[in-house]
Amino acid sequence: MSAPVQTSQTGQTGQTVQAGRAGGPDPAPVRPFLEMKGISKRFPGVTALDNVDFRLVPGRVHALMGENGAGKSTLMRILAGLDCPDEGEIFLDGQKMQRLESPRQAIELGIAMIHQELNPVLEMTVAENLFLGREFVRRRLFVDSRAMRREAVKLLDDLGVNLDPDRRMAELTVGQMQMVEIAKAVSYRANIIIMDEPTSAVTSKEVDRLFEIVGRLKGEGKCVIYITHKMDEVFAISDEITVFRDGRYIGTYDTGSINEMELIRLMVARDLNEMFPEKTHQLGDVRLKVDRLTRRGAFADVSFEVRAGEILGLAGLVGAGRTEVVEAIFGVTPPDSGQVLVDGVKLPCRSPRSAIASRLGLVTEDRKLSGLVLTMDVHDNIALPSLPKLSTPLGLLKLKQAAKETARFIEALRIKTFSPKELVRNLSGGNQQKVILAKWLATKPSVMIFDEPTRGIDVGAKSEIYKLVVDMAAEGVAVVLISSEMKEILGMCDRIVVMRQGAGVAVVERGQASQELLLLHATGLGGREDGPPDGRQGEERHELRP
Amino acid sequence: MSSALSRSLEGESRPAFDWKQFLLKYNIVVVLLLICVALSVYTDRFLNQENIINITRQVSINGILAIGMTMVVLTAGIDLSVGSLVAFSGVVTAVLLRDHHWPILMVVPMSLAAGMLLGSVNGYFVAYWRAAPFVVTLAMMTAARGMTFVYSKGRPISPLPAEFLFLGKGSLGPVPIPVIIFLLTFLAGYVILRHFRIGRYIYAVGGNETAAVVSGINIKLVKVFVYSFSGLLCGLAAVILTARVSAGLPQAGQSYELDAIAATVIGGTSLSGGRGRLWGTLIGALLLGVVNNGLDLMEISSFYQQIVKGVIILGAVLIDSKRHGS
Fold first, then answer.
1. Which positions in chain A touch B206 (Cβ < 8 Å)?
2. Is 0.80 topped by the overall pTM?
3. Residues A265-315: tens digit of each pLDDT
4. Contacts of A331 in chain B (CB under 8 A)
5. Residue B6 has pLDDT above 60, yes or no
6. Which residue from B203, B210, B216 is facing A376, i.e. has the nearest CB?
7. Domains of chain B by residue range
8. What gap in Å lies between CA B201 and CA A388, rounded to an integer?
9. A352 contacts in B (CB within 8 Å)?
10. Which of A361, A472, B58, B299 is the most buried (most CB within 10 A)?
11. 3-state secondary structure of A306
């Protein structure tokens, strides 16, 4: 067995890449704990999985990589009993399995999935959530809270998680909720634990805790499947990587035998040197001026300027207050003091309505929560903030003009939809994000704010979004870009403001910026050491809002 | 659609005619037609001009109320005060006519204004106090009923002038006046939802309130609008009802809100907001009317009619949840 663990079927893809350059000794010659062979799954109109293979070895962390729509989620849904495959066989511990009929059956077989969006019962305690649906009972009737509590403490201790089992779930951060989910999986004696984008909404400290726990699970001989879009995490935590593309199995590689560029190439089958578009345009006058903006408990004295055509990055750790600052500028949660000027005119910062009237636009970080109306179609979503312009003073809509406008944007942004009347919920993540971009482009903004514009979308759609953002800047729009991906910040921005614990701590010019420098500022280990504004724990907050 | 891209996409993807989809989409229309066919076969008293006109006349009050209800429900709200507002506006109408001898042309706007006023109070608390619509309108339902009894001293208010009664009992050619008012109201509601900005805002607020705020929509105004509009239609329904029964009755309109909600839900509007069509509500109201009429013709007691109504409502919701999946 050599490093790329390939099975007979892969030949048909013609994409098998020899990644075994490392040439070292064979990887663990352990019998696979789980084998999935020749799995196919078709949905109306799409083949989600085409004759795919997958196998897991005990005590190894297995990263599953691929663009959105590559088939990762479908395969995991099959494994977790949420979908039935059309073809293929699954062997668990050497035994051929009947079809998994339900999530419950999967759990009984020791397969637990920790979903990207956790759904705990927020009003219940940690212990109650851990034993939801299998409460301890005394005398066949009464819930034995004490025994449950005791067991919960033991479970959490074993994982090295320090959490009071009596706390309400609602008081926990997303990271802590994940710990509870993992403890739950362990309590089911799960041998296979699937983690779907576990770090998409947690702080860096919590990521460290998560990695510790994953290490612990690995030490106990469990199989961990780790799905993420974040390259650095893949290389930090995984032992082996399986790559999917367009519903096909591309290969399985030892993490040490492959580098980031190679991995990206396997995922997208195209070179990404032009990931970030070239910027050639000149910068104009100052369009957005933020002056000593403060909101108590969130951020203090934040000031910066953005010129026409400029892309200003807001870097920092999750919880540094970046989202809060742009929401204050946009009037979602008004600031306590300070002011914002757009083209020299003071912005009231009272409501998004007044911000839009001053030609601001905001692409929020969570497209389903605050970006799109999923029950409406593509056309209505794009037109929504422009309706005042697309109707008479009495409010009568100019339907033809609106249809023309939106059709223009659907074409210009190459939004893949059958018709403008298609519900946005049926679009892929990348296309949904383009709909949000289109909706703000249609308002002809002079300042655009992007909060994590490429979160959770695949690499191909990402580069298209980057191009759109740069095109916008080239037409004289002042752009503010928030991103947790250092590469995105470095590749896109002319200037970068680093925030830490609610304050802007450094401004870095494009030429001097490096990943290390930004991280030093963001974590407070380098640069100016002015302490954080009083009494706040910026890093402890998480960014899930009700 | 002008774009060549979208045209070609549409052309490629349009599948062969899908009966299942068609039936799911237009299920209530199909059900309504089936019931009509069954009734015409079963009894010769169903399919004749007089009976059909009778049905539409009976449907018109609930139909008018259901139009306002649909807009409220589209914003993920509910209006339980509808029946009480009808009684309140009706008594106001009757008192103005009988005791103050106001001309009809002024009484009708006053009835609408009375309903709209109380409706806007609902809207105010829902929008500005972020109170639960169920609770706010439940309180209004009780309070408005009480005010109606206080104002009328609990007695029916009659007699009313004959010209006024025409609004409830009269006809224009073969078409009863209430039906004409209903159809005009439906048209107005349709135009508001499809052709006015506020219509899109109603759908947006119900579909995703946060996204609506970020898109610059004044969601408070939208909510005040739908509850006020619902109240206004209560005032309109009150005029028809008062004229039809020739009196302002303080106990009128009991459980009208439930019939309006039933028509809305049968018509496919989702109680969680953001999804629904006004024509569905129209069919829903007709369906309820036809079933009632059919059971009457079959001389089935009104007790059974209620059971049938319950089954229809449940069936409509089940079909709807099937259609929209889990």
1. 375
2. no
3. 788 765 545 578 888 888 999 999 999 999 998 899 999 999 999 999 999
4. none
5. no
6. B203
7. 55-253+271-276
8. 11
9. 213-216
10. A361
11. strand
User: A353–B216: do the CB atoms touch at under 8 Å?
Assistant: yes
**Length of chain A, in residues:** 546
Q: Which chain B residues are within 8 Å of A420, Cβ to Cβ? A: 1, 6
Q: From B324, B287, B314, B321, select the one nearest B31 (Cα to Cα).
A: B287
The distance of Cα A535 from the centroid of its chain, to the nearest Å, equals 30
Ordered domains of chain A (ranges, CATH): 30-110+191-268 (3.40.50.300), 286-540 (3.40.50.300)
Q: Give the pLDDT confidence of A132-154 residue by residue, as tens digits.
A: 877 888 887 788 888 889 989 98
Q: How far is CA B311 from CA A378, A523, B23, B279, in A?
A: 36, 62, 19, 22
Two tokens, residue A292: 């000593």
Report the distance separating Cα A261 and Cα A381, nearest Å. 36
Please indicate whether, in this complex, the C-beta atoms of A375 and B208 are within 8 angstroms of each other: yes
The amino acid at residue B286 is L
Say if residues B118 and B88 touch (Cβ distance below 8 Å): yes
Chain B: closest CA distance from residue A154 (Å): 37
Helices within A384-537 (DSSP H only): 399-412, 429-441, 459-474, 486-492, 515-523
Looking at residue A222, what DSSP letter applies? Answer: -
Q: Which pLDDT tens digit goes with each residue over A210-249?
A: 898 899 889 988 999 998 877 888 899 999 999 998 788 9
Contact B10 A419 (CB under 8 A): yes
Distance CA B111, CA B113 (A): 5
Nearest by CB to B197, from A355, A397, A407: name it: A397
**Inter-residue contact A442 to A386 (CB < 8 Å):** yes
Strands A447-451 and A337-342: unpaired
d(CA B285, CA A95): 59
